[in-house]
Amino acid sequence: MLDALFEPRAIAVVGASTKELSIGNVIIRNLQTYGYRGKIYPVNPTAPEVCGLKAYRTLDEIPGEVDLAHIIIPSRFVPQTVEDCGRKGIKAAIINSAGFCELGEEGARLQEDFLSRAREFGVRIFGPNCQGIINSDPAVRAYCNFTYTYPDPGHISVVALSGGVGSVIMQALADLGIGQRLYASNGNACDISMSEIVRYYGKDQGTKAIILYTEGFANPRAFLEAAREVTAKKPILAMKAGRTEQGAKAASSHTGSLAGVDIATELIFEKTGILSFTDEGEMTRAAMAFATQPIPAGNRVGIITNTGGPAVIATDVLVACGLDVPKLSERSIERLRKSQLPEAALENPIDVVATAGGAQFRGALDVLLEEEGIDSIFINFVTAPFADTHEIARQIVEVNKLSGKPIVCNFLTNLSLEGFRITMRILKEGGIPCYANPSDAARALGALAKYGRLKKRDLGLPEIFADVDAAKARSIVEKAQRAGSSVLAAADVYTIFEAYGIPVAGWGGAATAAEAAAAADRIGYPVVVKVDCAQIDHKSDLGGVAVNLKDAAAVRATVEEMQSRLGSFGRLNFLVQKFLPGGRELIVGATAQRELGHLVMFGLGGIYVEVLKDVVFKIAPVTGPEAREMLTTIKTAPLLDGIRGETGVDREGIVNLVQRVSQLLTDLPMIQEMDMNPIMAFADCVYAVDGRIRI
Amino acid sequence: MLDALFEPRAIAVVGASTKELSIGNVIIRNLQTYGYRGKIYPVNPTAPEVCGLKAYRTLDEIPGEVDLAHIIIPSRFVPQTVEDCGRKGIKAAIINSAGFCELGEEGARLQEDFLSRAREFGVRIFGPNCQGIINSDPAVRAYCNFTYTYPDPGHISVVALSGGVGSVIMQALADLGIGQRLYASNGNACDISMSEIVRYYGKDQGTKAIILYTEGFANPRAFLEAAREVTAKKPILAMKAGRTEQGAKAASSHTGSLAGVDIATELIFEKTGILSFTDEGEMTRAAMAFATQPIPAGNRVGIITNTGGPAVIATDVLVACGLDVPKLSERSIERLRKSQLPEAALENPIDVVATAGGAQFRGALDVLLEEEGIDSIFINFVTAPFADTHEIARQIVEVNKLSGKPIVCNFLTNLSLEGFRITMRILKEGGIPCYANPSDAARALGALAKYGRLKKRDLGLPEIFADVDAAKARSIVEKAQRAGSSVLAAADVYTIFEAYGIPVAGWGGAATAAEAAAAADRIGYPVVVKVDCAQIDHKSDLGGVAVNLKDAAAVRATVEEMQSRLGSFGRLNFLVQKFLPGGRELIVGATAQRELGHLVMFGLGGIYVEVLKDVVFKIAPVTGPEAREMLTTIKTAPLLDGIRGETGVDREGIVNLVQRVSQLLTDLPMIQEMDMNPIMAFADCVYAVDGRIRI
Fold first, then answer.
1. Cβ atoms within 10 Å, residue B339
2. Residue A49 near residue A38 (C-beta atoms within 8 A)
3. What is residue A84's three-state secondary structure?
4. Does residue B435 belong to the interface with chain A, where contact is any CB pair within 8 Å?
5. Does any CB of chain B come closer than 8 Å to the CB of residue A341?
6. A61 vs A88: CA distance, rounded Å
7. A309/B213 touch (CB, cutoff 8 Å), yes or no
8. Torsion from C-alpha of B352, B357, B360, B362, nearest 10 degrees
9. What is the pLDDT, as a whole number, of residue B254?
10. A18 FRET partner, CA 20 to 30 A, in A188, A356, B217, B462?
11. Are B409 and B334 in contact (CB under 8 A)?
């Protein structure tokens, strides 16, 4: 569908210019320099030719068919030009020009204008306010972009919201000596979205891995769906900037569309199995490993080193990345003894020492390749001036050909020396990802291993509980909507919870002291009495909660006292509830996210949420495995198992509750916010003892 | 004192070799290639010349004076050669040979042998099992090393325990295009220590900043003293590897001396104001900024960018590094309006947009230079193909000359294009630190700012409390030593605490139920009774603690019950203590560290220490500001101030207690372990309610 964009057979450049330092000139020269295989038609009202090519005064005058137009003209002329594109039968347009929605109302109006004409004529729009695309396929060689990095063909495709960051990534890949397949930076992204591009990359046979940079998503749900589809086929490495409040502000100022620190993007990455990075350099270096190496079957890495300290650093970083540097089997050590020098350390890391040659490296590589307890190989290779480094490189490359285990190499050398450049070339041409320091190399292997773990996980499907009374819950919410209430009454909240099978501490509503005492008699003592009044939000702070009431007299006295003290707030109702001391306080909450659905939160209550902010989020619907993961990823997770000989809490009860909450949210998307704070968890049961729903 | 090592006027190479791939040949060629200014004397028993130089059969035959010897011969010959060095009047020897203490007992014996001869003759030893040194000073040009990176003269000096990591750092600095001053990698470091080298660098006029890599210190106290002296004069950037258990194991296997994850090294860095890094690449990139830029007066950074996304990433990273990206003053924005293009964003980041030229960059730079609310300048400079990038670079360099504020530049370009290489050269020659991506650049500025904060802090001197009874405490400990006890009795522990003015909950010892009741009467009820018996370590677990006893009868009954139940453990004593419920539980502890002194620990007690490991350490003696910092750097710090309307705890009481503990540890170095767990803290007082001392 995006073929006209990524594989255009002919390109018109509207706004082609004879001025060297102008975009309309740079783009044509880039197409020429990069060796574009199709036809280029400069469009310029006056110049007879641009960059040695015949220019046309209008699109209309172009003799042949055109797939793609670059539009590089003042924004006010863009709508008409888009219409002209449509009339000419052009299928896609890259609008490089700025001056649209990123520049306020007038620009937004212009954008709306050209978009409606584009839709009318079936022209797909890329941009505006964007760089463009690159396709390195030797059959296409389309450099529809004004940047300055000319990628070799390769297997990594890049999509970047920001052209500046796209350039950083493209250049970093080039500096690492690895090629690229497709590149796209779509600026305001008013039509062709990142989701669509990612889907296209997913289907592209030449793309082995995808790098993505964004500052958020206009339509996060659409991206989630696209990403889920694509990650099933190939890895996506992604980075989201605007992680701090000030960063998000900077992002909003240059995109004009997104604002606020959103955690949803990171959660989308997590849910769809996208590898998330916070450093663009680390992301591109990881991509180099993905470009040539297989995914390790597990976390156990064998290290070969001809230098001590870098192996220590690598071990630190590998372990921090969740890898393990296990002991080698006795058999492997026995085999190593035959190939290694006497001063070698036959452990893991295997220190072959600086005087090791190709035979010693090969011996160690063969052992790791065959050792069942090892899933990947990390090499520290310092080019000792007293070793035949070419031969070592050749042995590494040989083993890489045989190997189903990924090999990553920290290649320590001085590339200003010709001899070592040759060694490097042997490694690179042999598909060995080479890094300039141990931490970088270790993190790249860490990324491969993390992806291996992601591929193995099974989040399952959301469980659908059949024992829920969805109609009842819906009718309560709809009644509140009709009444114009945004915060539901406590009784309504508990009724909804019960309709979804969410366990609630025994409760009853009451309008009078007598009703409260009757409810307490029914529930059984001790009880809690809470005031229930739309005007009272923080009822604890106002003395609207009384706990551990042990008989009917205490309940009556409490209600009467609250009536006299709090009556001035409005009509008071009361909630009587079973008092459940001694459990572990938990909190489950949810908030609706624009265009995405709900985020479900879980954590320990009280000071853990208030002081430590020790909570974890998932995007609804939350599956069983996701809910279980929530329980293990909070920092205070050991408290759920009980400490100092306490019994732990009913974990499956919590997992069940979280999934029922998720189903409730999916069924009732009008819920804006919900929380259950606290939930009391015991060894064999959990109960929501306070809840709030805002619609 | 190390002049013979770093500025040798003549060098003998014992083990000089005619074989190209041997260390004894590489070192001579390196000296020649690098242009060593002094005399080189190869020593070889048979060859008449090595690398075109006349060779001598023995040191004795060398006609002139020699300052420094390289020793590259089998380890068993080293002791005699060291003695020969001494007889020849050689002042220092670099022993490259391996085969000493890193290879077990026999090697250790050889090392002891040559060391004693070296001491006898006054020869200082560098190594063994090491690379060597480099001095880039044009008057010296000593490349006493077998590596392959030839540094230009510069202002960064490097000392690395591991030669491999030293090479990584040296090469990274060369790749960044910055020079080096001195380099040293001293392997087993049996004589000349890292402390001594750091002190030498501290005094070296040409060294502006120091990079240090280690895996621990043989004598951490000596290093602490040296580092404190040097950081007062110039920045030390340091990295310690072996941070994980597996990393520490790898370190111990290659150095043969250090083992176990030690946190002491990081604490030494912190106490002495060393900038600590966990990534060698980041450390070298930071050094580039230190080499030419001043230290910012504060944390407020102004960003100039000609590309959107990289400014978002930079902002994220800068903020994460503790920097602030504040709003600009109205006056500055007014001034910007005059110099900037209409589409520029006049905020912070200042987006001058990609079409900006030198005038726009200069306008923005001038504003940030004069803006009082800005301490440093961060530039994102992408080489847009439609801008005069040379002119932009010249303007940045011009402003850098005027500026007392540091400038760091994220220079985004393609250096395979000649034009952009020129732009880069203008920036580099103008002293602008240039980075290839926004995160790297931002972290380098972050390091400058962090150093600025370190320079400003005042840890003060340890307070000496005059109201302590040191003699009493010492006599108790010495008595226990004489008795062969390693764990002090509870009464002794409390007496020591009281001797140091550490508040202890009212207490009394008792051997019988009657004595316990009498003590309780004296202390006042409620009380706690604890069994006190050397054979019972975990008294709580064994039911040896009873709390909240409200009268003498309860005390008597408890003691009698414990006597009958626990009597079989041995002779039982009892400790009666005031019961103090309702405070905040804290923990203070200490452990003795080999060759360093004590580490003092502080944290919240109970689950905070057990589950969250939320504790902080300092090296004794702990000053007042350090103790205060301990209170603010635990993750649960807000709990000390009280939450949900609670009153906070007596912070100065805790600070006082920590300092008194520190003084106690300093006075009684034989204490191996001590803890006060819990300490109960209230709004206006703190009390140790349980304590343990092991000597």
1. 19
2. no
3. helix
4. no
5. no
6. 9
7. yes
8. 120
9. 55
10. A188
11. no
Lowest mean pLDDT across A52-56, A219-223, A338-342, B582-586 = B582-586
B168 vs A23: CB contact, 8 Å cut-off? no
Domain B458-503+583-695: what homologous superfamily?
A: ATP-grasp fold, B domain (3.30.470.20)
A vs B, Cβ pairs < 8 A, gives: 259
Q: What is the CATH number of domain A584-694?
A: 3.30.470.20
Domain A1-146 is found in CATH 3.40.50.720: yes
Please report which helix (H) or strand (E) contains residue B472, including its range: helix B470-482
Measured in whole angstroms, the distance separating CA A267 from the mean position of its chain's CA atoms is 6
Residues from chain B that touch A184, judged by Cβ atoms under 8 A, are none
B401/A contact by beta carbon, under 8 A: no
Judging contacts by C-beta atoms under 8 Å, the chain B residues touching residue A103 are: 343
Band (pLDDT 50/70/90 cuts) for residue A254 is: low
Whether B351 and A279 lie within 8 Å, measured CB to CB: no
Lowest mean pLDDT among A431-435, B8-12, B260-264, B608-612: B260-264
Q: What are phi and psi of B471, to 5 degrees?
A: -65, -40
Residue B218 has a pLDDT of 87
Identify from B316, B347, B413, B421 which residue to disrupt to test chain A contact, counting A C-beta atoms within 10 A and taking the largest count: B316
Region B390-399: mean pLDDT is 97
* Cβ contact, residue pair B312, A438, below 8 Å: no
- Domain A506-579 listed as CATH 3.30.1490.20: yes
What is the CATH code for B147-292? 3.40.50.261
Contact A308 B255 (CB under 8 A): yes
A-chain CB neighbours of B607 within 8 Å are: 639, 643
> In chain B, which among 10-29 make CB contacts under 8 A with chain A?
21-23, 26
| Residue A52 CB partners (closer than 8 Å, separation 6+) | none
**Could you name the CATH architecture of A293-456?**
3-Layer(aba) Sandwich (3.40)
E strand or H helix at A34, and its extent? helix A23-34
B310 interfacial to chain A (CB closer than 8 Å): yes
* Contacts with B175 from chain A: Cβ below 8 Å: 436
Domain boundaries A162-169+194-290, CATH class:
alpha beta
How confident is the model over A532-575, as pLDDT tens digits? 887 777 777 778 889 899 999 999 999 999 988 888 888 888 98
CB-CB neighbors (< 8 A) of A163 in chain B? 307-309
Q: Do domains B147-292 and B294-456 have the same CATH topology?
A: yes
Closest partner residue to B316 among A247, A319, A412, by Cβ?
A247
Give the H/E segment covering residue A673: strand A673-681
Would you kindly state where each structural domain of chain A is located, as residue ranges? Answer: 1-146, 162-169+194-290, 293-456, 506-579, 584-694
Please, where are the H alpha helices in A525-650? 552-566, 607-610, 624-633, 638-641
Distances, alpha carbon B154 to alpha carbons A437, A640, B157, B182, in Å: 22, 57, 8, 9
Report yes or no: A102 at the B interface, CB cutoff 8 Å: no
Q: What is the pLDDT of residue B635?
A: 87
CB atoms near residue B612 (< 10 Å): 21
pLDDT tens string B610-668:
788 889 999 999 999 999 999 999 988 888 887 767 788 999 999 999 999 999 999 99
Check the CA dihedral A276-A279-A280-A282 and report its sign: negative
Q: Which CATH superfamily is domain B294-456 in?
A: Succinyl-CoA synthetase domains (3.40.50.261)
Q: What is the pLDDT of residues B477-493, one digit of tens each?
A: 999 999 998 899 888 99
**Which of A276, A312, A610 is the mutation pick for testing B, counting most B CBs within 10 A?**
A312
- Residue B581: what pLDDT? 83
- ipTM exceeding 0.85, yes/no: yes
